[in-house]
Amino acid sequence: MQPVPSRFLIRLARKCLNHPGVPLAKGDALLDLSSEYTLANLSGLDGQEEFAEMRMCWNAQGLGFQATIKGKKQPPEGDQTRPRSSDGITLWLDTRDSRSSHRATRYCHQFHFLASGAGPDREDPCFVQSKIHRALQDAPFCTPSEIMFRCTNEPGGYFMEAFLPSQALAGYDSEECPRLGVCIQVHDRELGNQIYDSTLDFPFSEDPSLWSQMILVQPDQDEKTTKKKAGRTLTSKAEKSSRKKTEP
């Protein structure tokens, strides 16, 4: 066991970009996120295999993610009664970013998105919400039909995308609290585990203080910052020019 994971030394605050147009109203895709929404993966720093790519977005209506899993030689396997032992993704979210506490609050959620595990032959993808162990309070359970989720098998893996509406996320308010506590575990019976910003040596599944921070970047926020800097530069040049003209 490594005393401290390498990623704990640089505890990241990840940007989550705004996408006002999701979920999509037409077609089969829910999100169709471009590469700029990709979450940087530093699993390799702690010797974990990197077999999944995650992309996330947000808007006032909720949060969305899409994932591509590659490198599989076998079809996904799962059991919705044992979600973390199935092929898929577990997402922990704290809508109030209370990471100073070692125990979950009513704003902390645990969602499982499985590539298989439902249906008569346990071959259908499914969504499962479960309680967080040792939580001070449990987050309200959403109705599964509220969650938009799709998963398709692809050569060498699978692709999944989901949108979590704000009514399924207790405490979600992008204006009042634009910072979230987040932990993501991609678990696969064949490929192993890819955990964003933690390792299996730590109880991240029940301890929000081990989750990383995600900042909900407001629309045009970077653009406004760039314009302000550009405006200051132009003003400075104009002032210098004016001074030269008025000098005797």
Characterization of the model:
The longest helix has 26 residues, at 221-246. It is built from one helix and eleven strands. Residues 223-227 and 244-248 have low confidence and may be disordered. The radius of gyration is 21 Å and the shape is globular. The protein is 10% helix and 34% strand. It folds into two domains: 6-217, Immunoglobulin-like (Sandwich), CATH 2.60.40; 220-248. The protein has 248 residues and is mostly beta strands. Strands 1, 2, 3, 4, 5, 6, 7, 8, 9, 10 and 11 form an eleven-stranded mixed sheet that branches.
The tally of domains stands at 2
The computed structural class is mainly beta
Instruction: Spell out the helices and strands N to C.
Output: EEEEEEEEEEEH
Number of helices: 1
Helix content: 10-25%
Q: Over the alpha carbons, how many angstroms does the gyration radius reach?
A: 21 Å
Architecture of the largest domain, according to CATH?
Sandwich
Low-confidence spans: pLDDT under 50, at least 5 residues? 223-227, 244-248
Distance between the termini: 74 Å
* CATH fold-level assignment of the largest domain: Immunoglobulin-like
What's the overall average pLDDT, rounded? Answer: 88
Shape: globular
Q: Per DSSP, what share of the residues sits in E-state strands of 2 or more residues?
A: 25-35%
Based on DSSP secondary structure assignment, what is the total number of beta strands? 11
* Main sheet summary: 11 strands, mixed
CATH class of the largest domain: Mainly Beta
